[in-house]
Design goal:
This protein has three helices and two strands. It has 79 residues and is of the alpha+beta class. It has one domain. Strands 1-2 form a two-stranded antiparallel sheet. This is Ribbon-helix-helix domain-containing protein.
């Protein structure tokens, strides 16, 4: 048996990136981590999301890029 953390369905949030509105669906745990990471970097979550969006390759969706960024930050903090 495996112990799972509290599981939630993805939550869709509207954000503005480069003056354009879009929506992204992420699990609440990822939204919380993004806000915490942004705060630690002295940015707003919107600023961090825009920076990730600008850096991602076009074939990678924004939600995927955000999840992978959060994972990389968490892994980096453990090292």
């Amino acid at each position: 048996m495996i112990d799972l953390p509290p599981l939630t369905a993805p939550v869709k949030r509207s954000i503005t990136i480069g003056g354009h509105r879009t929506s992204v669906s992420l699990e609440d745990a990822f939204w919380r981590e993004l806000r915490d990471i942004a705060r630690a970097q002295g940015r707003t979550a919107a600023m961090l999301i825009a920076a990730i969006d600008a850096a991602r390759p076009p074939e990678v969706g924004l939600a995927t890029a955000l999840r992978l960024y959060v994972l990389a930050q968490i892994r980096g903090n453990r090292a």
